[in-house]
């Protein structure tokens, strides 16, 4: 058969007529052979890529590219801040140089100006007056009165002096209120000694007519019984006292007639602390 093979094959029926009677037709469906079905093409194995990276590596490189871009942006910002700081520092230095040049030009002009300047503060006379100290140092005298017990002193002999303090009849009068260190020393001397002998050395302050003892020393038993040698002993007083203006200070002893004649062993003084 020369028909078109692209159409479906037509069935062929074969009839057996033997025996005079028709028999049940048998038919056989015989199909013509079909043309071979083309097989799908076998996929070729992928050709190795030697020029382009795989997709995963490409994505990784893209991630690194983004990170590198962020780091570059941060570094750029830091550099900008550094340059801004350097520029500000240069501006401040330039401004200071300009100010120094201006002051350098003004100072000689002011020094050459003959205009009188106003004096601020105390004048020299007042300054010396304020610097005057309040102090005194008196030394003993040979003639002592035995009636009152108040010792008399030399104010102008040897190392004795008074500065800013008044001395009258054995007493020192302060002219400024403040803190003073006051002191006194006396020396007793006698050719004979009794073990029961004693002496008293004290300093008193007189304020508005009232007397007050501010320091006192009392000693006894300073010699041995039956001693035929002269005896000598001393007493020292000293302390800080807050004195007011016009206060008087005096030194009293129990036996003025026993005071030694040594000037430097008997003294009385004070000096202002503040």
TrEMBL record:
Q: Say if the entry is tagged with keyword Calcium.
A: no
**What GO terms fall under cellular component here?**
membrane
UniProt xrefs under InterPro entries: TNF_dom
Annotated THD domain residues: 134-273
Give the matching SMART domains: TNF
Write out the transmembrane intervals. Answer: 71-94
Would the keyword rRNA-binding turn up in this protein's UniProt record? no
- Would you tell me the protein name for this molecule? Tumor necrosis factor ligand superfamily member 6-like
Q: Superkingdom of the source?
A: Eukaryota
Report keywords, A-Z. Membrane, Transmembrane, Transmembrane helix
Q: Which GO terms describe its molecular function?
A: tumor necrosis factor receptor binding
**Pfam families in UniProt:** TNF
Q: What are the GO BP annotations of this UniProt entry?
A: extrinsic apoptotic signaling pathway via death domain receptors; immune response; positive regulation of canonical NF-kappaB signal transduction
Give the organism's phylogenetic lineage.
Answer: Eukaryota, Metazoa, Chordata, Craniata, Vertebrata
């Amino acid at each position: 058969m020369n028909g078109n093979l692209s159409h479906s094959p037509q069935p062929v029926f074969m009839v057996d007529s033997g025996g005079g009677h028709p028999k049940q037709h048998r038919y056989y469906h015989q199909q013509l052979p079909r043309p071979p079905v083309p097989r799908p093409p076998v996929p070729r194995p992928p050709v190795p890529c030697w020029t382009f990276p795989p997709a995963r590596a490409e994505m990784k490189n893209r991630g690194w590219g983004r990170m590198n871009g962020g780091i570059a942006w941060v570094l750029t910002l830091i550099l900008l801040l550094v340059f801004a700081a350097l520029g500000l520092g240069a501006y401040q230095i330039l401004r200071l140089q300009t100010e120094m040049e201006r002051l350098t030009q003004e100072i000689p002009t002011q020094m050459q100006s003959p205009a009188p300047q106003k004096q601020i503060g105390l004048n020299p006379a007042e300054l010396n007056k304020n610097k005057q100290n309040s102090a005194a140092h008196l030394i003993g005298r040979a003639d002592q009165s035995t009636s009152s017990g108040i010792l008399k002193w030399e104010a102008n002999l040897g190392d004795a002096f008074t500065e800013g303090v008044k001395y009258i009849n054995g007493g020192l009068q302060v002219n400024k209120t403040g803190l003073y260190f006051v002191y006194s020393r006396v020396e007793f001397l006698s050719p004979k000694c009794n073990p029961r002998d004693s002496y008293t050395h004290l300093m008193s302050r007189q304020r508005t007519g009232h007397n007050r003892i501010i320091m006192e020393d009392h000693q006894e038993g300073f010699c041995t019984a039956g001693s035929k040698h002269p005896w000598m002993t001393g007493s020292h007083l000293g302390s800080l006292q807050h004195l007011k203006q016009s206060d008087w200070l005096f030194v009293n002893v129990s036996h003025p007639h026993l005071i030694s004649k040594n000037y430097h062993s008997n003294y009385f003084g004070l000096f202002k602390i503040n």
